[in-house]
Design goal:
CATH superfamily of the largest domain: 2,3-Dihydroxybiphenyl 1,2-Dioxygenase, domain 1
Number of strands: 8
Number of domains: 2
Largest sheet: 4 strands, mixed
Number of helices: 3
CATH architecture of the largest domain: Roll
Helix content: 10-25%
Strand content: 35-45%
Shape: globular
Length: 135
Amino acid sequence: MGDISTEARMLHTMIRVKDLESSIDFYTRLLGMKLLSQTDYEGGKFTLAFVGYGDSTANTVIELTHNWDQDTAYDLGNGFGHIAIGVPDIYGTCKQLEAEGVNMPRPPGPMMHGTTVIAFVDDPDGYKIELIEES
């Protein structure tokens, strides 16, 4: 066995979603990811959908887990922070998201104690997505 730091890589982050179609729309149409795969598991009554900016063999992706019998919103807890996505034009991106009715608890602007321009938006389940301007 070799050094884990040279052989390991991040594969995905899994989040549970109540409305799979709304979540897929948010991550693909609004944030520009691609739906990489979607599989129903009838025996377990759940669907897994993977979304990302590139194939999972070379990129970290998001696994959206939809449990078919989940009728109420998930308790997001207070341990999870956010998913961060780099964007080239944060003000334009936020304007488009705002026009789509996306909740934006923190509009774009320089971060406190720094100069990096960031914003926070909520996905359909209330998970925080940090947008970071990258030029």
